[in-house]
Amino acid sequence: MIKQQEQEAQNGNDDLGAPSKGEYAREMGKMFLEALDIAAEQIPVPGVDIVIKVAKNLMQTCEASPIYATLKHAKDLKNRIKNLTLILVNELKGKKAEEIAGKLQKDIKQLQSDLEYIQSKLDEIANQNAFLVIVFRWVNENKVQGCVERLANALESFGIITFYTQQAQAVNDMQEDVTDLRKDMKTALAILTERKEGNSSSLRRGVIPVTPDIFFGRDTTVQGFAHMLVSQKTRMARICLLGPGGMGKTSIARAVLHHPAVKEYFGEENRIWVPCVKATSVSLLRDTLYDSLGLSLNTGNTLRDIINDLKSSKSPIILLLDNFETPWNLHSQTEVQEVLFQLANLQHVALFVTMRSFEPPGDGIQWESMHLGAVDTEASACIYAQIHPAGSKDPGLPSLLDEVGHMPLAVTLMAKLGRKMGYMPAKLLELYKEAGTALLHLGVDAQRSMDICIGLSIQSQLMIDSPSAVKVLSILALLPVGATLEALSRWWVGDMPETTISLGLGTLLDTSLVEKRADIYVVLPVIRRYVLDPKRFPEDIRSATIRIACAFLKEYNGSVGDSTYLAHKNARSMEGENLQGILLETTAADPDIIEALLVLAEHQVETRPRIEVAQHALELSKKLQDQKLYGEALFWNGRNLVALDQYEEAMKQFHLSRAAFLQASEQKRAADALYWIVYLPIYTSYPNRRDVEDALAEFQSLGDRVGIAK
Length: 710
Known about the structure:
Layout: H1 2-10, H2 21-40, H3 48-64, H4 72-92, H5 102-126, H6 130-135, H7 137-158, H8 166-172, H9 178-193, H10 219-231, E1 238-242, H11 249-257, H12 260-266, E2 271-275, H13 282-293, H14 302-312, E3 317-322, H15 325-328, H16 333-344, E4 349-355, E5 368-371, H17 377-387, H18 397-403, H19 408-421, H20 425-435, H21 450-458, H22 461-464, H23 467-477, E6 483-484, H24 485-492, H25 498-510, E7 515-517, E8 520-522, H26 525-531, H27 539-555, H28 565-583, H29 591-606, H30 612-624, H31 627-643, H32 647-663, H33 667-679, H34 689-702, H35 705-709
Parallel strand pairs: 1-4, 1-5, 2-3, 3-4
Antiparallel strand pairs: 6-8, 7-8
C-alpha cells in the first residue's frame, strides 16, 4: 500500500494537489443537479417534477457510466437534456397550474414519456459487455443518435427550441477553465431564480468606428439624417443610403451615429453598428446581428433571440446595417427579407441601411432613401489638399479630380499616393491613364484600394448569376456618356434581346455598377477605368464594338446638301461622344476605321469643332500610306481648325491636303482644298487673286456647279 502511494506520488496522482478542471466540472455538475431539484419544487404543475427527475437520472447515467465515454453522441444527448431542463424551469417557474394551457400540460406528459423511453434505451446499452460496446461502437452510436433525434422531436412538439447558451456549453465542456465554469453556474442560477429584464443590457455592444478625420462635402446630408432620426415620435425612421462603393456611404452613416443629437437621443448602448460585409449567408447575417447586439443567451433560434432582446428595451435603438448588399444579393433573399421585416416591425428600432444598390431592400418597408453621388469639386479639392498639401496648388489637380469622378475614396487614395511618392497631380494623372485603378492598390491602403472596392460588386453573386449583366457592363464601359436602353438594343448590344439587356441593366443597378440618369445608363469614371483594364477586358467585345461604331457612321453619313442630312446629323449627335470615345482608342490602320473617323470629323465641323478625331484619322491614314484617306484627314483637320479660328495652321493643312489629293488623282477633292486656300486669305496674311482664278478654272473644268458658285 505504501509502495503504491509512493508510486502515485511520483506520478503526480496522490490527489493532494489542486483539483483538476475535470474535478471542478464534475462538482459543478453535481451542484447543477441539486439546483434542478430545488427549482422543480417551485413549479406546481403536474408532471413537471417527474420530468425533471427523469432528466436528472438521464444526466447521471451519461455521467456515471464509463461506457458512454466511447460514444460521441452521449455527450450531445446529455447536453440537450440539461438545456431542456433549463428551458422547462425558466418557462414555468412561478406559474400556477391553472395558468398553464391544457395543450402544454399534455406536451409535458408526452415529454415525460419520451425521456423514460430514452432512459430505457440507455440502460440497455449500459448492461452490455464493455468490450462489445467498444468493438461494435457504431451499433450503439446509432441507438444513442436515435435517442438524440427522439429528444429533438420532443422539443419540437413541446414548442421549445433547443436552449444552447454559451454558458451551458462551457459548463458541459470539461476543457473550459474554472473561471468560466463559475460564471456559467452563476448565470444558470440567475435563470432559475429571477430573470432580469433586458438580459443582455449589461453586455457590451459592438464598437462604432469613429468618424473619419477627413470628411468634406457631406455636412448637409449628415445633418438631414440626424434630424430625421431624432424627430420621429411614433415610429423610428427607416433610412437607406444607396450608391457605388467608394462614395462614402459608411463614413456618412458613422458620422450620423456620432452626431451629438443622435448620441443624446439614443444613448451610448443603443447605437449599434452591424457590419454586414462578411455576412455571406443568412445564418452569418443573424450571427452578425447577434454579435453586434452583444447577446449571450441563445435558445437555438438566433433571430428570435435578437428580436426578443430588442423588444426588451424600453428605449429607442438604432441599428446601422452597413454594406447590406452582401446578404441582400444572396440566393436566399426571401430569408434575408424576413430578417429585415422583423426588425422593421419594431417601432422603437430605427434602421439605417447602407448598400451598393439603386433600389432599397424589402418591398413594403417605407424607406427614406437617398442615392449618394460624388462630392462637388470644392469638397474634392479639400480632401486632396488635406492629405497632400504640396499638390493642392498644382494646375493639374482639377483634371485629376475630374478623371476620378470626384469619388471620395479615389481622391483619398490618389492624394495618399502623391504624398507618399512625391508626385504632383499632373504626374498622377499621367500614371493613372497608363495603369488604371491598379495604381490605387499601392501602400498601406491596399485593403481600401479601388480594385478591391469595385471587385466586391463585380464578383458578387448577382453578377455571377447574370452573364448578360457582365456583357452589358463591358459595352457600357466603352461608352463614355452611357446609353439608353433603346440605343443599347438597337446598336451596341444588337445580338441580345431587349428583355435580356433590361434584366442585365437591373442587375447592374442592384450592384451600383451603373447609374441611371434620366433614361441613360452610365458607368462611373473609376469603374470604367477598372472594367477597361486590358488585363481583364474581353478583347472580342472591344473589337465588336469598334465594328458597330464603324457601321453606325457608314449608315448615318449624310453631308450638308443631302436629303438625309438632318436625320443623320441628329443620330450622330445622340451617339457622338460614344463614337469618339470608341474610335479614339483604336490603333489599327484599318480603312473602315479611318473612314468612320472622317465622317465623325465632318460632323464635328458642323456641331462642335475639335481636332482630336481628325488628327487620329491623320495618324492612322499616314500609317496606312493611303494618299486619298491621308488627304481627307488633312482636309477635315483643316476644316475643324478654321472653325476654331486657327487659320494659319488650317492653311498649312489645306496645302498638304491638296498635294495628297493630286498625288492620288482626286481632282475634285484637290479643287475643294484649293477653294479653302482661296477662302482663308480673308483672315490670314496670304491673299492671292491668282489662286481664286485657278480655283474657278478647276471647278469649271470639272463641271462642279457648287464649286463654281462658291
